[in-house]
Predict the structure.
Amino acid sequence: MAASREMIGKYGRNENLPSIEMVAKMARAFGVTVEFFSGKVKTLLTTKKRWIV
């Protein structure tokens, strides 16, 4: 994932929003769906087959 610490920090502080491509990369890196990462889904899926990107 090619994101600087500064950019990740801005995402965390709501100073900037990641592109949909970056959201997909971050979801993959953390092993969650894009929906979970966005807060729309409250439970983790246990199978990587269910990734939504």
The radius of gyration is 11 Å. The mean pLDDT is 77. Residues 27 and 34 are 6 Å apart (CA to CA).
